[in-house]
Amino acid sequence: QVQLVESGGGLVQAGGSLRLSCTASGIINRYNDMGWYRQAPGKQRELVATISTGGSTNVADSVQDRFTISRDNTNDTVYLQMNSLKPEDTAVYYCNVRRSSYPHYDYWGQGTQVTVSS
Fold first, then answer.
1. pLDDT tier for residue 65 given thresholds of 50, 70 and 90
2. CB 69 within 8 A of CB 5
3. Among 7, 46, 80, 104, which is most exposed with the fewest C-beta within 10 angstroms?
4. What DSSP character marks residue 104?
């Protein structure tokens, strides 16, 4: 059974930093994309950043210069370092692990709240 366990969310003032972590367990084929998405109240879930097993990244323009995604393949963990946080970054952040080639899979974490106060 696959589990994604997220941690690191919380309340921070504008300009502050947070680091999110997500550890996956139970995944058989570990060549995949790991990433973070977020959903603010009343808005659709959106991509924040993804990273492949080989280290290729895809980062949303809105966070390009402030957020850094990384992963530890040994421990199946993905990190999101968030700096210079803004109130508009407030959202539930979801960890995602997916593989687009066979065997396909697409797993989501339970979400962690990030709140940035002005």
1. very high
2. no
3. 104
4. P
Token pair for residue 48? 């924040």
CA dist list (Å): 75 to 27, 30, 72, 78, 106: 11, 10, 6, 9, 19
Residues 6+ apart with CB under 8 A from 57: 49, 50, 51, 69
pLDDT in tens, 14-58: 999 999 999 999 987 889 999 999 999 999 999 999 999 999 999
15: left (phi over 0), alpha (psi -120 to 50) or beta: left
pLDDT per residue as tens digits for the range 92-115: 999 999 999 999 999 999 999 999
